[in-house]
Specification:
- The structure is a single chain.
- By secondary structure, the protein is mainly alpha-helical.
- It folds into 2 domains: 3-172, no CATH class; 185-402, no CATH class.
- It has helices at residues 3-36, 44-56, 68-73, 90-108, 113-133, 144-170, 175-181, 185-219, 221-231, 235-261, 305-318, 328-353, 369-391; strands at residues 62-65, 82-85, 140-142, 266-267, 272-273, 278-279, 365-366, 397-398, 401-402.
- The longest helix has 35 residues, at 185-219.
């Protein structure tokens, strides 16, 4: 594939990712415009709403000035007070990453992979700029620089993963890998085990959090249906609400992970949901929130064992692979590395899942990322240390003697 075709192909891949992301909220909103409102309202209102939803899904802050009637209905004294929405609907970010992985793999297979990757990023950023400019309005105004930067960064993560998959399959050795191969063997072992173990531990905790979230939704089916009925939405309205909840589902999984780590999360200022204590005030009428616990769990503290068990099992699996390569004190460094890597991944994800969802109490929704990170580091590090000590048998000389 020549250079011009590569540029065109990479640009179209990027535009496709933007189009799919915006089309998901735009299609039901357009149907609502045609069927429910009979084309009586300017369609650009629904376009701006769809783009705003897509931008919020990538962490872009949107400042909203509520209508006086809406403000009175929710009990706000000052209608002109701006409200900033910072809570990201991570389902859209996840979709962009997955589509970015696909685009990265396809572009990396061309004869001008680097040029195609740069073209994809540039096209995506320009498309983000255009759609963000199209939504600027006094009532709802997204941050312009965030609207360009944040979606592009999310897309770049997917592109990087996709290109690295192709590189790994081709067994090509890039400059970074060549540089790392020049390090001492024990340093490479410490770094590789720390990163691999931390990533596996974080993935294991998120898997358990997904199971917990699924169980909570299934067992709260009656409450969720009751909230759906209380909304009195028609079919299209119900579809729109369901799509919004699907976009919120990754957030809920990350909140469940914070619950398993220990600190839990909040649904409004002054509330808390954790294994040790649960205190909920008024919450938004979102049906899936009916899965939240209404009171303390009798054995909620058992959830705290999840990161400990995951960290121990990951270290126990990786321990025999490094047996004989590291000293005991180096195993301690590996344990701290696993804990730091896992805690950093979990901390960044829960940070992205939290924010402001509206006025009043809703300015504080989600976990406290620094607290979750600190708890996760301690739990994973201690568990990984125990797992390494029970599975790995250090055989290198350490301080003048050899352990056998």
């Amino acid at each position: 594939m020549n250079r011009q075709l590569t540029l065109l192909f990479a640009s179209l891949e990027a535009l496709l990712v933007v189009a799919i992301g915006i089309a998901i909220p735009l299609v039901p909103l357009t149907l609502l415009w045609g069927i429910h409102y009979g084309l009586a309202i300017d369609w650009t209102v629904f376009w701006r709403a769809a783009v705003d939803i897509w931008l919020v899904g990538h962490g872009v802050d949107i400042t909203v000035v509520l209508d006086p009637t809406v403000s009175a209905s929710v009990g706000l004294a000052e209608a002109s007070t701006p409200v900033t929405i910072t809570l990201a609907l991570l389902g859209f970010s996840l979709l962009t990453v997955l589509l970015g992985v696909r685009a990265g793999r396809r572009v990396a297979e061309t004869s001008h992979a680097m040029l195609g990757t740069l073209a994809s990023l540039l096209t995506f950023s320009l498309a983000s700029l255009v759609v963000t400019l199209s939504t600027l309005h006094p009532i709802a105004r997204p941050s312009l620089w965030q609207g360009v930067l944040l979606p592009t960064l999310v897309f770049a993560v997917g592109l990087l993963i996709g290109s690295q998959v192709v590189t790994a399959r081709s067994r090509a050795i890039g400059p970074l890998r060549r540089w790392v191969l020049g390090w001492p063997a024990h340093v490479r072992t410490i770094l590789a085990t720390s990163l691999r173990g931390g990533a596996l531990a974080a993935a294991g905790l998120l898997t358990l959090a997904s199971i917990v979230t699924t169980f909570a939704i299934v067992t709260s089916y009656a409450e969720i249906i009751s909230l759906y009925e209380a909304l009195h939405t028609e079919v299209l309205g119900g579809v729109a609400v369901t799509l919004g909840q699907l976009a919120l589902l990754p957030n809920m999984i990350l909140w469940a992970a914070s619950w398993l780590v220990g600190p839990g999360f909040a649904i409004g200022a002054g509330s808390t949901v954790s294994p040790l204590a649960t205190s909920l005030g008024p919450i938004p009428a979102i049906p899936v929130l009916g899965a939240l616990p209404n009171s303390d769990f009798a054995f909620g503290y058992v959830g705290l064992l999840a990161p400990v068990i995951v960290g121990f099992l990951v270290a126990a699996v990786l321990g025999p692979r490094i047996a004989g390569e590291l000293r005991r004190r180096e195993l301690a460094i590996v344990a701290l590395g696993i804990g730091a890597t896992a805690a950093t991944i979990i901390g960044l994800l829960v940070w992205a899942s939290a924010g402001s969802a509206g006025p009043g109490r809703l300015v504080d929704v989600g976990p406290q990322p620094w607290i979750v990170t600190a708890w996760a580091f301690v739990e994973f590090s201690v568990a990984a240390g125990l797992g390494l000590l029970t599975s790995a048998r250090p055989e290198r000389a350490d301080d003048g003697f050899t352990e056998r």
